Amino acid sequence: MHITGPDGKLIPYGKVYKSLVADFTDGTIPAWLETATKLAADATEVVGAGTTFEPLPGRGDITVTAPRTNNSYADIRTKVKFDPTKFTAIKFTLESLQFTGNTWQTAQIGIKTFDSTAGITLLQTNTSGAGAVIRIYRSAGAGGNVDRPIKMALHTVGLAGDEGQNRKNISLVLLTGKQYNAAQERQFVLVMNDDQVGAYEEITGLLTPGEYICTARLSPLGLPAEQPERYIRASKVKVELWTN
Questions:
Q1: Which residues of 120-149 are buried (b: 16+ CB within 10 A; e: fewer)?
Q2: What is the pLDDT of residues 113-166, one digit of tens each?
Q3: Which of 5, 50, 53, 65 is nearest to 26 (CA)?
Q4: Pairing, β 2-4 against β 213-220
Q5: Whose CA is closest to 122, among 99, 88, 96?
Q6: What is the pTM of this model?
Q7: Running DSSP on this structure, what letter comes out for residue 159?
């Protein structure tokens, strides 16, 4: 994979490539990955709670169901952390990703710190309209978070079946700028949806260093009784790392 440099020439992501892959075909979760749920903002999260598997010969999926309460969440995330200054690119992919429902919830896919003080996330709230935003997390002293609206949606409203439930392959790529000479470092976010580009944003000068995790989170917003449970489902989770 490659990007175009300031001189128009193609620049590889990096010479060294490694990947972490979880496909859930045997109904287990690897040591570098974990799931968690939390009942409310002031509650203690429970690692592994709400998690079920459909191993082969079924669909080979993992499902994490969120509590119905407001400010709750369901997470699929890496346990290992990544220093963006050590990599030229970090790519987080969820295959056959499904966020149930399209209202009364917030969904996000991020490469960021656990406390959301640094990094990036692809975010769609219950009120953000037809498209998601790329959010760059920054401290209040640095001007606060920066949102870049995009047209690609994580919630597909008004459609039935798997497409209505957003079952698709999503990749979030952070290009850290370390593939350039120090004086020419430029940082980008790339969003892929079923191998099509959903967004490509330059974020040079906005990225805050930190220990990043890769995470997918679904947060219900106090579901009414008539609303079904909300969950995240995926058939594969993959983290790819490039460095020079």
A1: bbbbbbeebeeebbbbbbbeeeeeebbebe
A2: 999 999 999 998 765 456 788 999 998 888 899 999 988 877 665 555 555 555
A3: 53
A4: unpaired
A5: 99
A6: 0.90
A7: -
